[in-house]
Amino acid sequence: MSTFRSAAECAVALEARDVTARPWIVTDTREVSFQALGERIGRVTALLRHRGLGVGDRVVIATGDDCEAAMLFVAMVCNGVTVVQLDPLTGAERAQALARKADPALIIVDAALKARWDFDALDRPLIEIAKPVAKTGLFGGLKRAKPSHGLDAALDELAPEAPPKHIPPETLAYILFTSGTTKDPKGVCVSHRALFSHLGTLSRTFGYTPESRILNTLMLSHADGMIQGPMIAFFNAASLYRPVKFEITTLERLLDSVFQLRITHMIAVPTMLSLLARLSDHQEEAFAGGDFQLLVSCGAALEPALWQEFEHKFGVKIINVYGLTETVVGGVFAGPGVTAGELGSIGRPIDCELKILDDGAGQGELLMRGDLLMSGYFADEAQTAEVLRDGWLHTGDIARRDGEGRYWICGRKKNIVIRGGLNIHPEEIAEALNRHAEVSEAVAFGAPDPDWGEKLFALVASSSADEAKLLQYCAEVLEPRKIPSRIMVVESLPKGRSGKVVLDEARALFDRPDVQAKPSTAGAGDAEGRLLDVAARVFKIERARIRLTSTPKDVLGWDSLAHLDFVTALEEEFDIRLAPRQIMALTRIGKALDFVARA
């Protein structure tokens, strides 16, 4: 089993290694050294004590500043304060529900998020993260000055203090709310024992050292982003790089960064690998600079064909990680140096145990046991007892074990959609749709997709609503990644004798040729009008809000998934084919009109 190592030991190790001048996090706009991290930990320690907070208290953090989010996370962990981090893209109703459920002693939140989420209504102690103020310098130039209020101002008033030297291992390091319903959010509780034992496992398995240069652009509000990013870098005194936000339009810059920044390890989800393999143009040498060691795939199953294609095209070795939010990030590993044999298996466990509840046919639900397991679901004894029994976590995945000791996932017992490496609970989408005044009943579910793993569909019973109206509603109340790809409106949902929706029949409705056929405006109006109509339909916003100058920053629904849908719709509408370089260069709507004109 792995050796437990505390936050205090990590801090001491940093001083002993004399890495204070080395970068801890580098983004496209900011660099934070280990020295700056150490000072921030000391000032946050002073702030917590000034406010009477200590080991076991809970603090909600929500910010769109990656460096700030990472520094606060590590500082809270070093003080034994339990972090509850909220995704900045969360809708207001859900954000309030999660904050209330967490019952925090303090909220630290971006000023803009505080206003959008109406956090004043929570009646909780709160500190704003104010934006730096732009001021005119001595010779007329602009400079960024610290705000006179908010978190930075509060920290500047305090002298740094040393965090506790000992934190009980069972103290909760963080609570991560998965996408359960707003009425019943599920918070995964991870202890210091689980977190630091698993950080040790990841470090040994992937060969991290203080010289490691890790590229991880995954969202920090999710486990693979924060734990396999800032936390693993902190644990190993290594450097983390987040040079760009992962989007289709930044793929070239991302690959260039691997070479230019001398990256040794890259963390990605299969969707990212699929897009890089499909759209990268003459960048096969990106990983050939002599520094790169390992690519870690996580978040979803890595299909054997994609695994082989990526390794062959870019000349890298890949280790695939299987795990759940309930197991920090992993536990089971497959790839060179870990598990030899056929691609497609999830491999073998490291520092944990697996067993299968055999159903008599050689397969059954996969169970896990070890230090990496969560402590339970926050304030929910019933759900905890359902999945944690006699020290074993019931994963909800159906698996089998082959004669070589490798494990293979055969299916799911639980209802979950994995879209681009992110888990989505369909019940949350159905709950949101059921709140619409014109919807009598709704159900949501996943369907296979070659690039994203799964797409999200919804079937709605209504006598008056239409798909466009419901998609617009979803864009207003759900995060962009949770908006269904399609919504079908029917008179009533297909149900069995028990009164439950028959999902196979619901899915079959979307397989009909007339449903799969996408609307076309071919021949109806000028190219510009047709283009704007396509964009409005794909991005699920009103036609009047789309302009040729619109960019992903202006259009809330324009993420990487919608980007590919937009490309597909353009190709079908205008009977053209876009080259990979054109797809990545599609940074505004007007660019598409240029491509159409050239074709």
Q: In which order are the strands of the major sheet placed?
A: 2-1-12-11-13-14-15-16-17
Distance between the termini: 60 Å
Name the shape in a single word. Answer: globular
Structural class per helix/strand content?
alpha/beta
**CATH superfamily grouping of the domain at 1-17 and 30-192:** ANL, N-terminal domain
Please give the radius of gyration in angstroms.
Answer: 24 Å
Q: What fold name stands as the CATH topology of the domain at 1-17 and 30-192? A: Rossmann fold
The main β sheet shows up as:
9 strands, mixed
The low-confidence parts are 520-524
CATH class of the domain at 1-17 and 30-192: Alpha Beta
Instruction: Give the mean pLDDT.
Output: 88
Structure description:
This protein is α/β, with parallel strands linked by helices. Among the domains are: 1-17 and 30-192, Rossmann fold (3-Layer(aba) Sandwich); 417-516, ANL, C-terminal domain (GMP Synthetase, Chain A, domain 3, 2-Layer Sandwich), CATH 3.30.300.30; 527-598, Orthogonal Bundle (Non-ribosomal Peptide Synthetase Peptidyl Carrier Protein, Chain A). 35% of the residues lie in helices and 22% in strands. It is built from 20 helices and 28 strands. The strands form six sheets. Strands 2-1-12-11-13-14-15-16-17 form a nine-stranded mixed beta sheet. A hairpin with a 5-residue loop joins strand 18 and strand 19 (364-369). Helix 17 packs antiparallel against helix 18. The chain is globular, with a radius of gyration of 24 Å.
